[in-house]
Amino acid sequence: MTEKKPIITVKVGTSSLTAGEQTLKRHLMVDIVRQIAQLKQQGHSVLLITSGAIAAGRHIINNKVRLNRSLPTKQMLAAIGQLELMQAWRDLFSIWEIAIGQVLLTRADICQRQGYLNIRDTLHTLLAHGVVPIINENDTVATDEIKVGDNDNLAALVANVVCADLLVLLTDQEGLLSGDPRKEQAPQLIPLVECIDASTYALIGAGAGTQGTGGMATKLQAAQLATHSGTTVIIASASRKDVLIQLAAGEKIGTTFIPKITLRESRKRWLLSEKPQGSIAIDAGAAMSLVRSGASVLPAGVKKVASHKAFERGALVEVLDPEASPLAVGLVNYSSKEIELIAGLHSSAITERLGYSYGHEIIHRDNIALLTKQ
Fold first, then answer.
1. Which CATH architecture best describes the domain 268-370?
2. Which of 2, 34, 39, 115 could disulfide-link to 109, CB 3.0 to 4.6 Å?
3. Mean pLDDT of the 155-178 span
């Protein structure tokens, strides 16, 4: 089994890209790109969640029209600025001959099961081919009902989708401080947070339910979400030299938020908490591989769709052993109709039979939770 490359999700805010001004600063952006290129050379897979589209759009259209703060105006600025932002990232990554892929998301894309799977597959395929996904909220279509609202929480959602080992939230502060630097003299950096609760939010003068479009409150919300999913989170200063390189090397910088459970435990708890929508039966060889080594469920080991009720791609199903006893639960990459067509086939024959493929596995090993002890 090949060793899984560490996945690092990096979120960089507008202030870190503009130095607090109205325009993107290429020298700040190129330093982030240089560090990501070095991380990739070290074997890491890196995703970049970037702010700055609205700021870039505001700069382009400034002094040409009178702007208000309405949602349509922000969406207009995002549509204009997104082109400039992505062109800037493309030009800079090309210096290191690294390809990028633009991914625009809303909360609805991630929360809907089919969309979740499609996003997961797209991001993992980009990473597998050495491409750096550049991710932003799709502000041009997002409404209050479907938007995430800030890129900190979007970064946490993306980290959950790809099962990232580390989420780095780059900002203009050292990390979480013991008080508001605007109100207190020399507040101290808090290097480690083991549990985010009301007292943590009190440090920044906010309640746990505080909503916003940025700042430390949304970073705490993002850290809370990501750590519950098994991802370590670090808030650190974007201006610190080689901050990403140092963090990847394990140096103690900024504020670290420790997850209570591992990525694998998080996935298992989630799978075991849902009600299966169907079942498939596998043969003795596939059952043995699943129990002994946590192998994926491949078409060759599937005997049939055991449930009478049809299910769609992304459904949670039971995996039955040859005695029809529940052995595991997992998320299927194919619908019940598709599984019936490819059951018993070698994975290489999937495309020939269906005319397309969602991958070699009917259920990938990362999306399986055993119901029996190994």
1. Roll (2.30)
2. 115
3. 92
